[in-house]
């Protein structure tokens, strides 16, 4: 079998193409865990085609943040970028709410452009909108530049979830103080890693925010809380539900790729068949390139055209399988695979040849996070997955992280810090006002909360939803179930605000 899972490329997307120093640009591999797919935003997609993403109005501001919130060391501050819109805010006198998106692992403008739900519901709520950028991503770089911030393990030491949440808490507090809005309620939003941050922030800082919408947030994707094969099983099932033949063709392709790569001119043949601009160095490089596409197709399997990850048609997995299945009799497996994967890498038809970076991801801060806290085990099962079978190997991850960063991962830290084992009991007794929204087509749904924990910690699950689809802007093509899901979210958010206002009135009436 091809050994692509052992050499999974770190799949990282962001809004700014970065010039990596040699100390990091030489990294070719990343820890073998599902978390690399959460790092998809830390480099910008190198496509320029737009499928009609809306432009939202905001002011760009910067806030001086402490580099370390948990010590009194004399460390330099850094400028955290945030986007703010107060046009529809009803103001402090009317206790206008603040809608606060917890920035993910990338340029905050990218998330603002792809989180239309927040922008669309803000006016009827009379809400201010704030999109803060996550430290060490986009323009929010400690030590003055990317090169300095990413120089070594010492300069990266403050890239943690705890520090990022503290950034958000401090920013909210200071922003409210400056606007005389201390009594205005804050509602958190986030998708993917940002959704995890939103849920965790509601739990760790309940006095800062009254509730959180955590979309596609795999907070259980740690240790042994969920089966490690969930991610790839869901990707595989997404293809199998469209076509068993498509599923089997992909499943059979890995051995063909490996066998071809072992031939004397095999790599040249694979390079030509898949139209790469430069000759492949190994068959594994091709396998990684393909597996990345299949996983992102599952995450972005939206019912309408979108360019969130790459320009893709509506129901892209269906289109991939149509391409694979409709090839004439006698078409080789490799040619079928090429025709199918071109839906992801070349839907516009404008690409003449492919670079491996057309996946378009690279090494960035998420590798550090995966090597420290965000240790999310993944495996691929022999019987149910269309990917090559493999077992999760923590020792290999540890070796990679020691070699590249000089650090050992802490696989139990996230569950220690935010909970995990016994999470239902903890959430039920100590948490409130969190929405976990998921679509079952999204491979991350296997690591999220899919059932109600209490009356105020609820799960909104859709059978045909993909990766934080509910946070995207409304379109004329939205199916009824998506419209209903968003309406349910609005109703719950309204109930949080009503409860907050009622409580304040009772206090002042005493």
List the helices and strands and how they pair.
Layout: H1 22-25, E1 59-65, E2 78-85, E3 98-101, H2 108-113, H3 116-125, E4 128-132, H4 146-149, H5 161-178, E5 186-191, H6 193-204, E6 211-215, H7 230-240, H8 244-261, H9 266-273, H10 283-299, H11 316-325, H12 333-345, H13 365-372, H14 394-405, H15 413-418, H16 423-430, E7 434-439, E8 457-462, H17 480-509
Parallel strand pairs: 3-4, 3-5, 5-6, 6-7, 7-8
Antiparallel strand pairs: 1-2, 2-4
Summarize the structure.
This protein is of the alpha/beta class and 510 residues long. The chain has helices at 22-25, 108-113, 116-125, 146-149, 161-178, 193-204, 230-240, 244-261, 266-273, 283-299, 316-325, 333-345, 365-372, 394-405, 413-418, 423-430, 480-509; strands at residues 59-65, 78-85, 98-101, 128-132, 186-191, 211-215, 434-439, 457-462. The radius of gyration is 23 Å and the shape is globular.
Task: Describe this structure as you would to a colleague.
By secondary structure, this protein is of the alpha/beta class. The protein has an eight-stranded mixed sheet with strand order 1-2-4-3-5-6-7-8, sandwiched between helices. Helix 7 packs across helix 10 and helix 11 packs antiparallel against helix 12. The protein is globular.
């Amino acid at each position: 079998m091809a050994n692509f899972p052992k050499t999974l490329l770190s799949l990282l997307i962001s809004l700014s193409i970065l010039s990596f120093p040699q100390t990091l640009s030489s990294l070719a591999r990343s820890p073998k865990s599902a978390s690399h797919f959460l790092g998809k935003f830390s480099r910008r997609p190198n496509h320029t085609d737009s499928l009609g993403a809306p432009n939202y109005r905001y002011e760009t501001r910067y806030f001086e943040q402490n580099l370390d919130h948990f010590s009194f060391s004399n460390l330099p501050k850094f400028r955290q970028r945030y986007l703010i819109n107060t046009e529809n805010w009803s103001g402090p006198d009317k206790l206008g709410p603040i809608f606060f998106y917890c920035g993910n692992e990338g340029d905050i403008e990218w998330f603002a452009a792809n989180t239309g739900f927040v922008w669309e519901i803000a006016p009827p709520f009379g809400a201010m909108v704030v999109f803060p950028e996550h430290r060490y991503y986009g323009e929010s770089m400690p030590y003055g530049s990317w090169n300095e911030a990413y120089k070594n393990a010492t300069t990266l030491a403050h890239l943690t979830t705890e520090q990022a949440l503290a950034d958000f808490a401090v920013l909210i507090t200071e922003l409210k103080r400056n606007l005389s809005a201390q009594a205005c309620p804050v509602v958190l939003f986030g998708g993917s890693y940002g959704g995890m941050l939103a849920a965790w922030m509601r739990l760790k800082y309940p006095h800062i925010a009254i509730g959180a919408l955590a979309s596609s947030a795999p907070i259980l994707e740690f240790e042994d809380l969920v089966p490690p094969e969930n991610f790839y099983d869901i990707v595989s099932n997404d293809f199998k539900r469209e076509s068993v033949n498509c599923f089997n063709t992909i499943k059979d392709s890995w051995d063909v790729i490996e066998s071809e790569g072992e031939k004397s001119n095999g790599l040249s043949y694979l390079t030509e068949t898949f139209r790469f601009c430069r000759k492949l160095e190994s068959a594994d490089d091709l396998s990684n390139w393909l597996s990345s596409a299949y996983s992102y197709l599952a995450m972005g399997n939206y019912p309408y055209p979108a360019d969130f990850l790459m320009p893709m048609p509506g129901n892209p997995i269906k289109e991939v399988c149509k391409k694979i299945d409709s090839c004439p009799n006698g078409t080789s497996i490799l040619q079928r695979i090429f025709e199918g994967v071109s839906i992801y890498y070349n839907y516009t038809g404008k690409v003449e040849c492919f670079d491996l970076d057309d996946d378009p991801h690279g090494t960035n801060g998420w590798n550090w996070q995966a090597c420290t806290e965000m240790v999310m085990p993944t495996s691929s099962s022999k019987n149910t997955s269309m990917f090559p079978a493999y077992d999760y190997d923590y020792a290999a991850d540890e070796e990679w992280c020691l070699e590249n960063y000089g650090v050992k991962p802490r696989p139990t830290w996230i569950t220690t810090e935010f909970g995990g084992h016994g999470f239902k009991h903890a959430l039920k007794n100590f948490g409130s006002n969190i929405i976990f929204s998921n679509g079952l087509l999204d491979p991350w749904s296997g690591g999220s909360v899919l059932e109600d924990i209490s009356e105020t910690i609820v799960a909104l699950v859709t059978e045909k939803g993909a990766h934080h689809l509910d946070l995207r802007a409304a379109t004329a093509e939205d199916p009824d179930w998506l419209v209903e899901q968003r309406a349910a979210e609005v109703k719950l958010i309204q109930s949080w605000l009503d409860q907050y206002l009622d409580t304040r009135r009772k206090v002042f009436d005493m």
